Structure formats: C-alpha cells, structure tokens
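Researcher: Good morning. I'm working through a list of sequences from a screen, and I'd like to move beyond sequence-only analysis. For each chain I'm collecting a predicted structure so we can compare shapes side by side. This is the next one on the list. No need for commentary yet; just the structure.
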Amino acid sequence: MRIHMAMRVCGEPRIQRPSIQPKIAQGRVVSRGSSPWIAMLSKNGIPFCGGSLIGKEWVVTAAHCLHLPSDPDNPEQTDSVLINITSFKVILGRQKTLRKEETEQEYHAKNIITHPRYNGSTFQYDIALLELPSKVKMMDYIMPICLPESSTSTLHTGDMVIVSGWGKQFLHSIPETLMEIEIPVVDHNQCKEVYSQLGRQVTDDMICAGLKEGGSDACQGDSGGPMVAMDGETNRWFLGGTVSWGDGCGEDNRYGVYSDVSKSLKWIQNITKIKNI
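Model: Good morning. Structure tokens for this chain:
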C-alpha cells in the first residue's frame, strides 16, 4: 500500500468523502482516509470513546470519557476520578472496529487535561485534552482537524455537520467499521426546551444537532468523537463539537448534544499552543 506523506495542513484530507447527502437514516461507512483526524480510545481492544487529532501531539475528547465514578456501587454519586492513564490506548489511522491495520499508530497518553469548568453531573464543558508522548507521523490516513477560527460559535442553525464514530448503532451492537452521519445543527432554544421537559439542562457551552423525527444520532461509544463542518471560506474541515450526551439514540424529538469547541477554544490554544495552519 502506498502511503503518501501529507503536507502539514489541517482539515484537508487527501482522500475525499462522497458529496454530502441531506439525510442519512442510520449512518454510512466512512470512506477510508476521509476522516484522518479521528482517534479511537480503546480498552482491551474494544473502542469506548472517540477523539480528534489537533496538531501533532494532542487529541481532543470528552471529559466524561476519562472519568470513573468514585463509588461504582453508587450510581447516583456524581463525584468521579480520572481513569488510569495506562488503562487505554489512543489509536490513529484505524478504520476497522476490532481489527488492526497497517496504517494505524498506537499510543498511551502522556497526560490527561480536563477542562477546569467540567461538571460531571451536568456535562458542562465536557471536553478534555490528551497529550501524546511523541509527535504523530502524518500520512494520508492520519492528519489533524482544524480548530474553529473564533471563540464565537461558528455553527448556526441548519448548518450540516458530520459526526463519526465506532459507537453502537441504536444501542444494539458495535459496527464492523467507522461510521458517520450527516445532520443539521438545531436551534439552541428548541433543544433547551426539549430537554427541559426531561429535567436536563442545555447550557451555552453546548450545541445540538439531529433530526426532529430521529433516526440519525451519535450513540454509546461515540462520546468524545468529532462533529465537523466545512468552512466555506477556507474549504477546510474544522472541529465544531465533541460528542457529549443525549437521551437514547435516534429517538423522536431528541437531539444529540455536543460540547461546543469554540467555547473552549482559548483554553485549548493556551494549553496546546496550536494555531490553524
């Protein structure tokens, strides 16, 4: 297999995905290499969360992916502790869910940094950074995603976004390969109203996406994975959000809720020193 070294440009995969369709009922298989920034967080060979490569040494994921209840016998307890840094692997360049591939690179994280305002009970600022122990070797199948250009939200109601992951499909079984869906961003007030009826709070650092009739959604195991959109001016993909929470998978009038990366942009850049290139 020929693997070409890629230029250090974020959000420009060498391998293009098919043209965007307005609705995908249950997701589709991701074209290999068309989401080269996606990372798999894996325990004992099984994916439990996703992430996104930014720069050469950092992966963005969900903070809740990296925490365990401090008392596993008390599910109501909201306190949590960080998981052991050696208990999971960060895998880049992977397409298949359970099978190793010649394009992948595997790491144990060097450091876990969760957002200082992360709240495990409300999922506010559900975002974290994984520092890798060495610089990633860039290639067609491993390239970084761009960060948003501004700390002001860069996604608007109706914008189409792509969400990728190895999570369970409607809570049934994990797929054989990486899947993606294309869904619209949902009006923030509409999403707040839906979840307020369930006693859940959608805060300003969150962004919602999905279809009112359901059918397309992130699911268990997709947490931390990328929600990306195309920047119409630069023609580059950027990281709009990370999969955070929801109610069920693909239910009617239930939307996926994502941590809005633009609201954590300054924090990310202060730590990583990454600027879009």
